[in-house]
Amino acid sequence: MQKWEYKTFYRSRNSNSKWSLDIEEIIACGKEGWELIAVTPRSGDLYANLPSSTTTPGYTSEELWVFKRPIED
């Protein structure tokens, strides 16, 4: 039976819409044999400390990237 190892990356945006990790850093792991199996976006309130008139519903503020690769026995 095939066994797998997993690797995750979490990235988030700040209030200036800049991501904490560059996508090139993440997808570069494909060169090491990692296969992307999921990207889970999350909408959040980037401005939680400001008045409610500045909320951003539906805006992707976080992502979880999940990769896998086979474990060699």
Description:
This protein is mostly beta strands and 73 residues long. The protein contains one helix and three strands; from the N terminus they run E-H-E-E. The protein has a three-stranded antiparallel sheet with strand order 1-3-2, with no helix packed on it. 3% of the residues are buried.
Which features characterize this protein?
three-stranded antiparallel beta sheet, 73 residues, 3 strands, elongated, 1 helix, mainly beta
Helix content: under 10%
User: Major β-sheet, in short?
Assistant: 3 strands, antiparallel
* Beginning-to-end CA distance, first to last residue: 10 Å
Structural class: mainly beta
Strand content: 35-45%
Which strands sit side by side, in order, in the main sheet?
1-3-2
Number of DSSP-assigned strands: 3
String of helices and strands: EHEE
Q: Which regions have little confidence, pLDDT < 50, spanning 5+ residues?
A: none
How many whole angstroms does the radius of gyration measure?
16 Å
The number of distinct helices, counting runs of at least 4 residues, comes to 1
The 3D shape can be described as elongated
Let me know the average pLDDT. 84
